[in-house]
Every structure is written in C-alpha cells, then in structure tokens.
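At your convenience, could you comment on the folded chain following this short note?
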Amino acid sequence: MEVTEGARHSLTANIPYSSLTVDHSLSITHLKPKIVELCKDLFNQWSNLDGSHFSVETVSGGITNLLLKVSVREDDGKHENMTVRLYGPNTEYVINREREMQAIQHLSAAGFGAKLLAVFGNGMVQSFIDARTLTPPDMSNPKLAAEIAKQLRKFHQVEIPGSKEPQVWNDVLKFYKNASTLQFDDGEKKIKYETILFPEVHNEIIELKELTDRLNAPVVFAHNDLLSGNLMLNEEKEKLYFIDFEYGSYNYRGFDIGNHFNEYAGYDCDYSLYPNKDQQFHFFRHYLDSDQPNKVSDKDLEALYVETSSYMLASHLYWALWALIQAKMSPIDFDYISYFFLRYNEYKKQKEKVLSLAKSYLSKPELGKRLM
C-alpha cells in the first residue's frame, strides 16, 4: 500500500483514489461485493446504487495479476464498462509501481493501452477495451506480426519522463541477489531449489552482460512483457492494443523484441514455436520501416537479428530468476520453480550458437570502425 500511495502522488491531478484492498484469492462470488464496495468508494456517481446494478466477471487470470470486467447499469439505463486489475500479492518485489503509474499516463496519451480511471490499495481501474486477448499462435500470423512490429516501433518512440538508464541488467542482478538467498519450507520446492548452481548463474549473467554491452543497442522505453496475454485485437475494427505496462522501463530495443519472440512459446515453453530467421526478418522489416518494409537493407536486418538474439538470452535469465522469487512470494497455483528450469535450460541450449553469432558479427572490421 505504501508503494501504491507513493505512486498516487506522482499521478496528474483528479485521479480518484481509495485505500481499500481486494483479496486476489476470492472466488468471483465473493469478489463481487468487494468490487461493488470499491467502485462506490471510488466513483461518487455510483455511491447510492445497490449491488444489482453491478456485474463482475473474470477477463483473465495470469500468473501475477487478476483482470476483471465490471459493468455498471446507471439509473438512466446506460451501461458503463471498465476493467479492474488486482495486483498479484507481493509483486512489489519485482515491479516498480510508481514507474508504472507514470508511464501509463504518457502511453495512454500516445494512444497505447487503456485510460487510467482510478487507483486503489492493491490495483487500478482502467477503461474497458472491447477486444479479444491474443493467443501464442496468433503472434506468428504474418499479418498480425507485421502490425505488432509497427505498433512496437511507435511504442518505442514514446518519451517517458525520468531516468533513461536501461534496466535489464539492474533488474537481473537485483533478481539474482534476491533469488539466490531464498529459504523454502515446502519440501519439494526446497529440493528443486537446492539443485540450482547460483555461482554458475552469476557467471552467465556477467558474461552475457559484457557481450551485449558491446552491441551498443538503442535504448527505448520498452514494454518488457509483450506476451500474447498483453496483446488485444478488435477484429471488426482491425485494431491492435498493447496492455499492462507494469514491467515497462527504459531498456535495450533488442531485449523487448527478443523477449516478445520468446513468448511465442507460451507458458508451456514450447520453443519449437520460436520464430525462425525468415519470420524474424519479416517482423524486423515492419519494425524498421512499416511503409516500405521490403526496402530495409540486409545490413540493418542482420544487425537487428544479432541484437535481438543476444537479448533473447537475457530475457531467459530475467524471467528464470523472476520465477524463483515468485515461487517464494506468490500464492498463485503455478509451478514457478519448474518454470525457472524451463527458461534457464533453454538459455543454455541457445547460448553457444547465439554467442558465436554475436562474436562473429562484432569481429567485422567495418563494424569496429562504426563503433569507435
């Protein structure tokens, strides 16, 4: 609540705020009266409506947050729809809520995501987006991939106030520090956790950081969590939406794209679905020049391919360590420790091929001249 209270003060004026919290773990039946109470506290115009004027349904339940659709029937018969997002318990360990609140306002003004309507003790209320959530197979659809790339380029051009220091390695090292000192009471978790060779993980972080630092990748305001669940499509209007900016920060361009490609695999981590080189180049062309994608040079495609591949590895380390913290902190029924091994093992599987690609690229004489 202290985090949310601090974030509230960084908002522009006139955003309603309530200190109420809603238990993330309640069934939808028990959630409804809590959500009704919250809405009546936040919005004065609904304070005298009884519970029959409100309907609440689950939109999605990811592995961190719970998203609800709330419909309000006003006295004149008009319906207002909005979404209520309940933060996952203990997510403040991995998410900077103040940074998120600030970013939402600027991204919304630039046409991204839903409008922020209110903030409360453990979540936020936003305008409702009438669209369906994408699935992992959707992202490999060439037409959708081109649109995602086009919108991501626009997203990366939004200026957000504050420090423009890229955050990936700060976050990875912070996650490592927290993840490597956990204590588990659960016997099965404890046994799995104790098989992790943390000195090896730390060496991998340092080695990859040193390599990616040599790439001089552009720094942009990145989404950092562009999985299918954070992409919505209104097929009638052919409009694509990016949502949920809680992991957003200034970061390396290649990290955002590489992380997005990793999400083709879904939560099951089926990396046979990772986009091949032709699919990646299709995405890069529309990212670099959506008006004339076929005129993007081979040199620019190859540079972005190397950058993205290298930061794809960083994405695996990021979410692997994140998962260990969630295994300790989150009450959600998800096997986070197994998820650590799925991500870390894929990192190790891809490492040598990607590092060889990057080192070969960096050794080119013409590149050395450009980087001097």
About this structure: Residues 1-5, 368-372 have pLDDT under 50 and may be disordered. Residues 216 and 371 are 8 Å apart (CA to CA).
